[in-house]
Amino acid sequence: MRDRVRALTAAVTAGAVLALPGTGTGTARAAAGPQQADSESELTVAAGETYVLTATTPLTALTIAEGGTLTTPTGCTLTMTIDGVECGSVLTATLATSTTIAPGSYTGAIVLTVAEENLATFAGVTFPLRQALYVDGTGAVATKSALSALVGGTVTDAAAREVGIASTGEAFNGVYVAGGGAYEIKDTVIGFTANGRCDFVGYGAAIVGTGSGTTLVVDGVTVSNVGVQRTGLVADKGANVVVKNSSIRCLNGVVPADYVFAAGANMLVVPWRLGISGNVRATNLIGTGTKATYINSSISSETWGAFSVDSVSNAQATAINCSIANLGTEGYATFADGNVTERILGCVLDAGTYATIIGASNGTVHYGDSTSADIAQLNSDLELGLSEAELEAIPVRSTVIDSRGFGVMWHGAGTLHISGGTVLTSAATTFLDKGVRATITVDGSQGAALNPGNGVVLQVMETDNPGSNAGVYTEPTADPVKDGTFDTTAVHDTDTTATFTDIELTGDFCNAMRTGRNMVLTFQGAHVQGVLSSSVSRHAVTTITSAEYAELGHVTNTPGPVVNNGVLVTLDAGSEWAVTGTSYLSRLTLSADSAVTAGPVGGTVAMTVDGVLTAVEPGGDYSGAITLTVVA
C-alpha cells in the first residue's frame, strides 16, 4: 500500500468571514491554520492506496475505489459535503468510534473538510466528533467546523440564524456548543438520516449543548432525524439549554445486523428489560448540574423515548406547554434516571408504554399546571432568560396524559407529585412499582384525576427485570416465607407510600411483594372505591425472555393474607373507602369523620382482626391480620 500526502493549504486568519453556501454570510472567530485550499477539481484514490488529506479541499468529482482510503493526519477528522449536504461518512465498524468516507464515485459541489477533532468521552470510550458548527466560549470556531454543511442564513459568534443543516452520512453533528459559551440557534432547520453512535455524548445528534457555564438557546428550530442513535438534542455536563417554539422528531433507524447488545457507550438500542424497544431517543439530558428546559415545543420519538434524563446528578429537566409523544406503538414519554428534578407543566403526553419511567438515585417528577407564578419563578431559578412579554404569552394549561400502556413505572427509588388539573389516563395500571421505594402524592383539589384502564391504581410487585439483556425472568411458584423480623404494621423508610388528597378514586391498590416492603396509603378528604389489599401477582407467562418483553409489568392479582407485604391504610379528613371486594390489611386507621362502607352494590362491610370479628368505627386504629369483606 502506498501513502500519498498532499498538503494543499491556505491560512485563514482569526476573524475571517465564514462563507455559507446559499444566501448570507456571517463573521466568526477562526484560529489561524490550514483550512481552505486551492484544489484539483477531481481526486481518485486507488485500491490499496491511503491518501492523507491535510487541508480542506473543494472538488467536482471524487472516486474512492474498494480498498482505498481517504484519511487525515492524526488529531483531525474528515467530512464530505456535496451541494451542502454532509454525506458519504460511515462508521468503520458497528461499534467503531470514528468514521471514514465510503468507497464510491461522488460528483457535484464537493467539499472535503479537514478539521480538528472534537473529543467526547463517556464510560471510558472516547469519540472524535465532527460537526457543521463548533462553538466555544470565544464564539464559532472554524477549525473545528465543517462549514460547507451550513446552508443559507448567517453565523456569527453569538448566533446561527435561518441556517439549514442536512446529513445523510453516519455520526455527524449539527451544532455543538461547549466551553462556557453563550449561543443562540434560531429559525434553523436540521434534518439527518443514517445512524448516529452514542447519545450519552451526542455523537450524531442534531444539537449538543455541553459544559459548565454553557448557555444554549434554541428558538424556532425544526429537527427531523431518522437513524439509530440519531438524537435531536443532547444537554450535558452542566450546560443550561433552553428550547422554545421548536420541534424535535426522531424516528428509528436500522440496527446493524452484527450488533450484540452492550450497555454504556455501546448501547445502540433500549434494553428490552424495560418492556420496550427502539433505537433512538429524541432528547437526552446527562451529566452533573445540567439543565434543559423546553417551552411551547413538540418532542417526539418513534419508540424508545422522547424526553429522556439519563445518568445525571443534581440535574433539572423541565417541559412547559409542550407536546411529548411516542409516535409508534411503544416507548416512554419521559424518563427520570438519577438525581433529577423533572417538571412536566401544562404538557400533553401521548405515551406508547409509559408516561414516565423513574430510574435510580431518587429522582423527583412533578406533573402540574403551567401557572404564571410557577413559570416566573422557574424563569429566575433556571435562568431561562424569558422576557416579560414571553412570560405573559405563556398560557396557563393543565397537563393531560394518555398512555397506551402504564402511567408511571418505578424501577428505581423516586418521588412523583401530581397537582393542578392533571389528568392521567392509562390503558393499564396507573402506578407500577417494581420492588423499590416509591413516594407518591396526588392533590386533587384543582381537578387532578387518575383513570386506570385495567382498574388498578397502584401495583407494588417484585421486579420482573431479569437484570441483563441476556437474562430470563422466571415467575416464582413457591409461597413466600414469612420474615419474622419485618414489621408489616409499621412504616419503614423503604416502603412505598402514597397520599391522595381531595380526589375521587376508582380502582384497586395491590401489594404483591414477596419480601419485606409495605404499601402505605393515606387518604385525606378523598373517596376511594376498590380493593386495597396484599395480593399474589402472576404474569400471563411464567418465563419472560427478550421475545416476550411486552409481558413485563402486566400481572393479575389474587388478594390474599399479608405475609411480608403489609398494607397500611389511613382515612383522614372525612375520607371514605367503599370496599368492592375482600381486602387484606395489616393496619387500618380512621379519623373521627372518616368511614369504611360497602361498594356500589350495597351491603355492609365485615372486618376481622386476627380472626376476631371487629366493628369498623370512626376514630378506630386497628392492626394485625385484618380482613374486610362485603356482606350482602
> Which structural class do the helices and strands define?
mainly beta
Largest sheet: 31 strands, mixed
**How many separate helices?**
2
End-to-end Cα distance: 91 Å
Parts with pLDDT < 50 across at least 5 consecutive residues = 1-39
Counted beta strands: 61
Average pLDDT score = 93
Shape descriptor: elongated
Task: Specify the helix fraction band.
Answer: under 10%
Radius of gyration over alpha carbons?
28 Å
As an assembly, this protein is single chain
Strand content bin: over 45%
Can you walk me through this structure?
The longest helix has 10 residues. With 632 residues, the protein is mostly beta strands. It has 2 helices and 61 strands. The N and C termini lie far apart (91 Å). Helices cover 2% and strands 50% of the residues. The strands form 8 sheets. The protein has a 31-stranded mixed beta sheet that branches. The N terminus is likely disordered.
Salient structural properties:
15-stranded mixed beta sheet, 632 residues, disordered N terminus
Concise account of the structure shown:
The chain contains two helices and 61 strands. With 632 residues, it is mostly beta strands.
Q: What is the fold's blueprint, element by element?
A:
Blueprint: E1 2-6, E2 17-19, E3 25-27, E4 42-45, E5 49-53, E6 57-64, E7 69-71, E8 76-82, E9 85-86, E10 89-91, E11 99-101, E12 104-116, E13 118-122, E14 125-129, E15 131-136, E16 139-140, E17 154-155, E18 159-161, E19 164-167, E20 173-177, E21 182-186, E22 189-192, E23 207-210, E24 215-219, E25 222-226, E26 233-236, E27 240-244, E28 247-251, E29 281-288, E30 291-295, E31 298-301, E32 305-320, E33 323-326, E34 332-345, E35 348-351, E36 354-358, E37 363-368, H1 372-381, H2 388-392, E38 400-403, E39 406-410, E40 414-418, E41 423-426, E42 431-434, E43 438-443, E44 449-452, E45 456-461, E46 473-474, E47 496-501, E48 504-506, E49 508-511, E50 519-524, E51 527-530, E52 532-539, E53 543-544, E54 555-559, E55 567-572, E56 576-579, E57 583-590, E58 595-598, E59 604-609, E60 612-614, E61 621-631
Parallel strand pairs: 1-5, 4-6, 5-7, 9-19, 15-20, 18-21, 19-22, 20-23, 21-24, 22-25, 23-26, 24-27, 25-28, 26-29, 27-30, 28-31, 29-32, 30-32, 31-33, 32-34, 33-35, 34-36, 34-37, 35-38, 36-39, 37-40, 38-41, 39-42, 40-43, 41-44, 42-45, 43-47, 45-49, 47-50, 48-51, 49-52, 50-55, 51-56, 55-57, 56-58
Antiparallel strand pairs: 2-3, 6-12, 8-9, 8-12, 10-11, 13-14, 15-16, 17-18, 46-53, 52-54, 57-61, 59-60, 59-61
